[in-house]
């Protein structure tokens, strides 16, 4: 199996295997559905059905229904979004409760999207691996602390040539983008001047006419903001930076209040 195909299959396996847990425990269904809509992996009507469902569990059941119809590409995208939105769930559900297995039909380099492990195989073989707990009794006397996950890896055919461990990388996040992402719920509820912001975004050629109409023809301001967030997530950091700047001009008191909340939390 090629590395890319293997990664997709592992994501799909995770989504299918943990269906019950994810239906019960995923709470950020709306932003996940918005991202899937922006990637054209669910339809507008399906998105509306999910939004109209009463509980998180019912929203997730509907989302799974649509994912099942869309196939592996949609499930793989769902996993990627879930890893960004609720990473604690991915970590918790992937703590070695179920070993990951896959068959390599030939030699080559393979990467696991769930763990970040890279395997260089001499020839065909079967890999089985999982995340296991560190033995604190061994670490404590040395004064050392775990620097990452601990893996149990087995290859009965002994065809594993090299193993590449995942590394941690600290990426700088633009403060404007962080603000827009972090305060999504508050902004959806409290931003009232949505049309002028959409006007500014289309004037700066960051938004197309079709997207502008979708936002401005929505009913209440909260629905306008949800559609605006769909647009922002589809375009990325450039649009979020512009939105933050426009919001700061239009509703400076709201920005000051929310930034003040962040400062108090950091102190």
UniProtKB/TrEMBL annotation:
The keyword Membrane does not apply. It holds the Pfam family FIIND. It comes from the Eukaryota. GO terms for biological process: inflammatory response; innate immune response; regulation of apoptotic process. Residues 13-97, 172-262 form the CARD domain. Keywords: Cytoplasm, Immunity, Inflammatory response, Innate immunity. The keyword Cytoplasm applies. Its main location: cytoplasm. It is found in: Cytoplasm, Cytosol. Residues 76-267 form the FIIND domain. Signal peptide: none annotated. GO terms for cellular component: cytosol. This is CARD domain-containing protein. It comes from Albula glossodonta (roundjaw bonefish).
């Amino acid at each position: 199996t090629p590395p890319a195909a293997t990664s997709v299959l592992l994501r799909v396996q995770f989504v299918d295997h943990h269906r019950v847990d994810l239906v019960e425990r995923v709470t950020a269904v709306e932003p996940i559905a918005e991202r899937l809509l922006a990637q054209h992996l669910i339809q507008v009507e399906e998105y509306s059905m999910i939004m109209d469902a009463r509980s998180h569990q019912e929203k997730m059941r509907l989302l799974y229904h649509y994912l099942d119809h869309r196939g592996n590409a949609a499930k793989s995208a769902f996993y990627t979004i879930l890893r960004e939105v609720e990473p604690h769930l991915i970590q918790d559900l992937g703590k070695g409760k179920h070993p990951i297995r896959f068959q390599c039909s030939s030699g080559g380099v393979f990467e696991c999207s769930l763990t970040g492990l890279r395997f260089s195989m001499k020839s065909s073989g079967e890999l089985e691996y999982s995340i296991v707990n560190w033995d604190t009794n061994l670490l404590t006397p040395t004064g050392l602390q775990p620097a990452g996950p601990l893996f149990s890896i087995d290859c009965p055919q002994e065809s594993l040539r090299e193993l590449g461990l995942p590394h941690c990388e600290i990426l700088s996040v633009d403060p404007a983008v962080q603000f827009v992402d972090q305060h999504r719920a508050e902004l959806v509820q409290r931003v009232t001047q949505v049309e002028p912001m959409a006007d500014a975004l289309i004037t700066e050629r960051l938004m197309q006419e079709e997207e502008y109409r979708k936002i401005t023809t929505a009913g209440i301001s909260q629905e306008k903001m949800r559609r605006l967030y769909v647009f922002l997530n589809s375009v990325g950091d450039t649009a979020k930076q512009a939105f933050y700047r426009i919001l700061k001009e239009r509703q400076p008191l709201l920005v000051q209040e929310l930034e003040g909340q962040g400062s108090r939390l950091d102190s």
